[in-house]
Amino acid sequence: MIPCPTADEGPIAAMRNVDFSYDDGTEALHSVTLDVWRGEHIALVGGNGSGKTTIAKLLNGLLRPSRGHVLVKGNDAAKESVAALSRTVGYAFQNPDHQLFCSTVAEEVLFGPKNLGFADAKAVEKADRALSLMSIGHLKDKAPLSLSLGDRRRVSVASVIAMDPEVLVLDEPSTGLDAGEAAELMRALDGLNQEGKTIILITHEMRLVAEHSERVLVMAHGHVVLDCRTRVAFSEPEALHESGLIPPAAIQLAHRLSDFGVSPEVLTVDELAEEVAKVWGARI
Amino acid sequence: MESQAESEPSPVASPEPAKFVSPKTVALYGILAALTAAITIASYLPFSPTKGYFNLGDSMVFFSALAFGCRAGAICGGVGSAAADVLLGAGVYAPVTLVAKGGEGFVAGLISRSGRGKNWAVVLGIAAGGALMITTYFMAEWLFLDVGFGKALAEVPINVAQVALGGTIGAGLTHLIRKSYPSLLKG
Amino acid sequence: MGCQNMTGFVDLYSEGGTFLHRIDARVKIVAVLFLSVLAFLLSNVYSLTLLLAFIFILLFLARASLSRTWFALRFVIRFMVLIVVLWPIFDPSGTPVWATFGPVKITEPAVWRGVTSAVRVGCLACVWYILMFTTSQRDLVRALVKMGLRFDFGLALAISLRFLPTFSATIDSIKDAERARGMELDKGSLLKRSRNYVAILVPTIVSALRSADTLSLALHSRAYGARADRTYLREPKMRRQDAAALSVVIALLVVPVFFKFVLGVPL
Ligand SMILES: Nc1ncnc2c1ncn2[C@@H]1O[C@H](COP(=O)(O)OP(=O)(O)OP(=O)(O)O)[C@@H](O)[C@H]1O
Ligand SMILES: [Mg+2]
After folding, report:
1. Which residue has the higher pLDDT, C225 or B149?
2. Residue C233 C-alpha from the chain's centroid
3. What is the pLDDT of residues A25-37, one digit of tens each?
4. Nearest alpha carbon to residue A27 among A56, A59, A67
5. Domains of chain A (ranges, CATH numbers)
6. Ligand 1 cavity residues, CB under 6 Å
7. Which of A22, A23, A115 sits opposite C181 (nearest CB)?
8. Count of alpha carbons within 13 Å of B36, Cβ hemisphere only?
9. Which of A30, A150, A264, C216 could be cross-linked to A258 through a Cys-Cys bond (beta carbons 3.0 to 4.6 Å apart)?
10. pTM above 0.95, yes or no
């Protein structure tokens, strides 16, 4: 879905000149300003320790800015509890094991909607939908922490989807999934995005970014160093390189082949194949 | 105290295997003690008029004892709780805690195991262990640290509450984990 | 609070180059034990105050930072005040009587006994900090092993100190996760809060027990227990200054004991 910032509706979530330091003095963010519009599919990328998780936790109130403001639906987040913010901004933790504490998967996924005060039938409906979206319905009666890492990850994502927040922040959700599982997860997220949910995907996998996100936010040392459309970001890889990010192979190959007339503006393997076919077709 | 010159170990011939406890036990006991200390520190509320804190560390002492037996209860409960005392700045209590919480874990583990983990044995074990802990603290404060009868007495109700809450949580935890993650408790 | 970071983990130790940092940890352990024994043997409030002053001078020499010292002393001071207040209420013996509130008699000797006990507890508490402020956990464990703690127990102790901050961080992160899913941890009845607490403890314990499994494999694969006469890379050696410090420590105990029990000086 193409985001359409309209005049009458402001960004669904925003940060204004936010600084953040942890209690031990680590300065994790410096003057971060960003807007998240309803329906966007954003990738938040950057090296280890660049501040991605910190941004996610600021957006749903787990951390409070040292300076500056976080706005959720136009309201200052400082005035709202984490529980209230979690209706709008759902956050799936980087480590799924820290998010699983119930004795069955079914209870786990029901936990959030129940806390938000959905009626029982409604809560169960939302939970079941989340389970089927993550295709883990068959694990309902299992103990969450006894599952494989991939399944634990999917349970933790499902438990956030079940709360039906408008913005979904997923912290490295593909870690520990095999290629097939990751593709399936991304398809599910794209589906939610089609329905109008805003997706913020934190990841180290540039291929997922290139294939699924429309906009990229690049973090380095607590600064947002790049904030643009994905196609633009990958068309000038120098900025990415500076932040220690390496574009996926298809994009690198396209850049190498640009001397032969292949457009470097491709994002996916399919697009590259099309370009190559075009150039070759013309040659032959 | 003086350092003796260590004799060089012979590089090959018949190294005698050490009579150490198994690595599994070392790892388990180390981790359980750390958990006990971490939970004691995390649940620290500046609440108690005596020890400086009211904590739920007892829940981990009981968990170690009920899930892994009296030796684990004694060592992990005692060492973990004493380490928390030292780290929180209540070091003067550490020796007392070592004995009081160690005894608590030992008795709770012993009784609950000899009753094969039946409900009555668990309750009796927690009550007896708790009583031992409370008495130890009281006697140690009154007679050993010599802080006065009133001061020692003031701590008793707080410790009773701690045992009641910690015992309930510890037993609940053991039940939950045994049900959901039985493989973890084979130690 | 200087010594408490984000995860609520507390480590009183700070690096430094003072002579107290450099002395062999075994000497410091003996010093703590001897000074504690001394505190128990002294019964005169003046000599106890002198001992407390001496301990404070040592703390000062250890360059303990103010915030650290305050963190530690907060506890001790509250503790001492309580002893002074509660002692006379429960001890009606002696004369002169200063005041009477119904059945409660406040007598002068009881007040002094309370003060004496408070100062003694102050000594016992503060003497620990000399050790804790100046000795890293690693050196402490190594010293205990050298003093006869079995190596395997020492290893378990080292493991537990190593994992303590990790678990503190895990607990914090799990609390966050529950809050992010709409749970309000510090609201509700005691029962409800305990239930919330169990929800925090279960994943903490499960992940901890998992790491115990991994760890035992790691110990196996690194030939733990292969031979009893294992060696250490860094053997703590008693140097001349350590020996000198040890003799001072011994004198600190022996001299007052001689004066008190042999010469009958009322210390
Ligand atoms: N609880 C904490 N206490 C102190 N410092 C922290 C804490 N959490 C993170 N930091 C520091 O803040 C900075 C930003 O951390 P953050 O977790 O936001 O990075 P990240 O981009 O998510 O990294 P990663 O890719 O490793 O997850 C890092 O320097 C990190 O060491
Ligand atoms: Mg992160």
Report:
1. B149
2. 28
3. 889 999 999 999 9
4. A67
5. 13-245 (3.40.50.300), 248-284 (no CATH)
6. A 22, 24, 26, 28, 46, 48-54, 94; C 6
7. A115
8. 37
9. A264
10. no
